[in-house]
Structures are given as structure tokens and as C-alpha cells.
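User: I'm putting together notes for a lab meeting next week and I want to include a structural view of one of the chains we've been expressing. I don't have a solved structure, so I'd like a prediction I can at least talk through. The sequence is below, exactly as it appears in our construct file.
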Amino acid sequence: METNIQKYLAFIKTVELGSFTKAAAALNYSQSGISRMINDLEEESGVSLLERNRSGISLTSDGINLLPFIEKMVNDYLNLERRMEELTDLETGIIRIGTFSSVATHWIPKMIQAFQKKYPRIEFELVLGDYSEIEKWINSGRVDFGFVKLSKNRSLESTYLQKDELLVVLPENHPLTKYEKIPLKKFENLPFILLEKEENPEILELLNHADFSPNIQFRTWDDYAVMAMVEKNLGISILPELILTRVPYKIVTRSLEIPFYRRIGLVYKNKNALSLAAREFLNYIDFR
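Assistant: Thanks for the context. Below is the predicted structure for the 288-residue chain, given as C-alpha cells.
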């Protein structure tokens, strides 16, 4: 790695961890080495980046303004370096995948298992987030590709994989379990537990599409918290089928009378620009 990039990386890591000592440990340098690199960087640029005091360090106003540009430059350099190493090598490297929890739990492990039988030295990093976060990570180069819910308005290249049905989730012995398919009107006046993730709004999309307002008693962003509350008879809910696979809770699922689905797909900036390892891994994407 070039000397100036090392200095910028030392600066970013110091800001991230809040101390020269922690940054030195993370980058395998001495504390004085980290401090000297940042001092050199400030002298060369003529700009003061950090304020040092007894309570620790903090960014100067110039440091605050320059940090996003420095982060992008270092990230671009590291991506270039990594791509140059990986583009022609399937023996080593790292594949970074943006994903949401149900895909990370139920699809990706068996894909990695199959892939590593042939390429055992390839490493993986799974970065969990909501749909919009995953797309931002792809655009910035933080991840190679990602699994998201496909929508009509999308700037990234995409490959459709599978539709995932939204199911009614009920406690055992609930009166609605007698139905094989449940009309939304049966929810009227029943306590409802809403899975409400800021950028994963498929449940609200379903309710808005049906022009139906349930009696919402609880809201949470955690799928498993919803299941736990349903099991305790605190209400009923609607969740994607994929997250309901192999769960330990005593719950019952039913389809809606008018089914509603989310379309799960794979997205990337440019398939041809992916590393050789990442492109090869796409051949192992099997969600069955």
C-alpha cells in the first residue's frame, strides 16, 4: 500500500476508534507511528485534521469537511487493490455480500458451504441491513452484490430469484386457524403486531394496497419478536414466509385470501465488473 494511503487509513481508523492507541492496535503499528503519520499528513496538506486534548481526540472543522472525501478515496484504493488481486485469482480473496436477515439465515449458508468445497480459501463477509442500505453499499463498493426486495424503480442491475409470500401468523388454537385462506376483514378489531422496518415496508404496502387498517397494538422491527409475541397470544401478524422457516415458536401460519408477495432478487452495479470469485459464486446461488 502506498505511503500516503497508509497515512489516510491511519487517520480514518483513529477517527473511527477514537484514539491513537486503538488505531495502532487495529493496524498493527506503534502508537507513535500512527501519531507521526497523521502529523505528516497535516504538515503535507497544511490542514489541521484532529484536535488533541486530555479527554482524547476530535475532528476539527476541516477534518469534518474532509473526512467523507478521504473515506471515499481510501475505499476506492482498497477496492482497486482488492480487485486487481482477485480478478484473476480464484484461490484467495474475499466476497462481500449485502443481505437481510432471512436470506442470511436460510439461503446463504448452504451456498457458501457448496462454494467452499471447491474454493476453500475464499473468505466471505456478510453485511446485514435493510434494502436501501444494501443498495447504498453496492453503489459505494462496500459490498460486491446484495439480496434485496426488487422494485420497479431501481438503478442497479438485478436478477429475479424468487417470490416470497406474506403469511398470516397466529397463535396455536386461534379461531382463525380453521381457515386455510384468511380474508383481511377477519382481522377487524383483533390486536395486530406490525413488523415495521424503516426501509422494508412490505407489510404496510400490503395493508395500503388492500385499503385496510388493522388494530395495531404493537410495532417492532424484529421478526422474531413478532413471533414471540404472537406465541404469547398478544396479537396476530403478517410476516414473509422465508423468515418463518424452521422457527422454534408455537405458531401457525395461513395464506391470505388474496395472496401478496415480495420479489427477492440479486442486485449489483455491473456483473462484468465483479471479481472472478464473486462472479463464480453467482453460479452457486440456489435458494431451493
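A couple of points you could mention at the meeting. The chain has three domains: 3-77, 93-160+264-282, 163-261. The CA atoms of residues 185 and 213 lie 10 Å apart.

User: Perfect, that's what I needed.
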